[in-house]
Amino acid sequence: MNKQKRIVVLTGAGISAESGISTFRDSGGLWEKYDIMEVATPEAWHRNQALVMEFYNQRRKQLYEVQPNDGHYALVELEKHFDVQIITQNVDDLHERAGSTNVMHLHGELKKVRSSADEDLVYTLDGWELKAGDLCEKGSQLRPHIVWFGEPVPMIPAAAELSSSADIYVIIGTSLNVYPAAGLVDYVRPGTPIYLIDPSDLSVGHIRGLTMIREKASTGTKKLVQQLIK
Ligand code: OAD
Questions:
Q1: Ligand 1 pocket, CB under 6 A
Q2: Residue 158 CB-half CA count within 13 A
Q3: What range does the domain containing 218 cover?
Q4: Least packed by Cβ within 10 Å: which of 22, 54, 151, 161?
Q5: What is the CATH number of the domain that holds 46?
Q6: What is the DSSP string of 208-220?
Q7: Beta bridge partners of residue 9, listed in sequence order
Q8: pLDDT for 41-63, tens place per residue?
Q9: What is the pLDDT of residue 204?
Q10: What pLDDT was estimated at residue 1?
Q11: How distant is the alpha carbon of residue 128 from its chain centre?
């Protein structure tokens, strides 16, 4: 047992794929079916609130129908042995539902909504449906609590700090296409072992000290956790 040792885990859509949530950029992924510019930008919200709300309502509805998978649960097991800190790009709550304690959401959370006038007014939505006319306490329309393309990512400084404190860094199920999240690995201290679990052939030659585990999150994470515990 080495609770002093910190393992920082950066997760992306791939860890939730086996729970039945589509990734974004795989074939058949969400960005093949929807235009990012129409549903995931502040401009889209100004143009067509109903469409944006519907897009996230469907994602939220689906979240109530899926369960964490072995990949999420393996990270909970890891917590019994290490100080595990998860940084997730995912807006689902599957890490929390599996039982992970330290989860930082970089891109927001589906089950939360916030005031469109004051970003500090954040609420947990009751049920899956956000509707036109649902207002914050100051009378402004509520919007999804999601970091849209073109918006700043408020949690990045904290995530960078966490990344630089890692004794071991683990990346699971992300195409590393979206910045600033994809740049977090640059904050990992030189010499720190880095593992990447993803079935695809990602171009990650620039990441020093990387061990690539080309497997799905469920099996790959379980194997890595067994190895780290030993
Ligand atoms: P992507 O869809 O870009 O990448 C998903 C990754 O998961 C790919 O590298 C796949 O190979 C991998 N993958 C697929 N199935 C897997 C499995 N069973 N186990 C492990 N890996 C698997 O998703 P992200 O990198 O998470 O942002 O995307 C980053 C951000 O872009 C998202 O947070 C979202 C999106 O636009 C916002 O919406 C703000």
A1: 12-14, 17-18, 23-26, 29, 40, 89, 107, 147, 173-175, 177-178, 198-200, 202, 216-217
A2: 12
A3: 1-21+68-107+152-230
A4: 161
A5: 3.30.1600.10
A6: TTEEEE-S-HHHH
A7: 86, 170
A8: 999 999 999 999 999 999 999 99
A9: 87
A10: 56
A11: 19
- Judge residue 27's burial from the number of C-beta atoms within 10 Å of its C-beta, 0-12 exposed, 13-18 middle, 19 or more buried: exposed
Last residue of a domain, one of 146, 165, 197: 146
Same domain, 210 and 190: yes
The confidence band for 2, taking pLDDT boundaries of 50, 70 and 90, is low
Tell me the best of 16, 24, 105, 170 to mutate to test the pocket of ligand 1, counting ligand atoms within 8 Å of each CB and taking the most.
24
Using 50, 70 and 90 to split pLDDT, how confident is the model at 27? confident
Residue among 65, 47, 45, 66 at smallest CA distance from 56: 45
Q: Is 145 a catalytic residue?
A: no
Residue whose CA lies nearest to ligand 1 atom number 8:
175
Catalytic residue, from 72, 95, 105, 107: name it. Answer: 107
Tell me if 20 sits within 8 A of 181, measured CB to CB: no
Segment (H or E) for 103: strand 103-105
Instruction: From the CA of 108, give the closest atom in ligand 1.
Output: 39
pLDDT of residue 48: 97
Give the list of residues 6+ apart from residue 61 with CB closer than 8 angstroms, or none. Answer: 128, 129
Provide the number of structural domains found in the chain.
2
CATH number at residue 156: 3.40.50.1220
Closest C-alpha among 63, 75, 216 to residue 146? 63
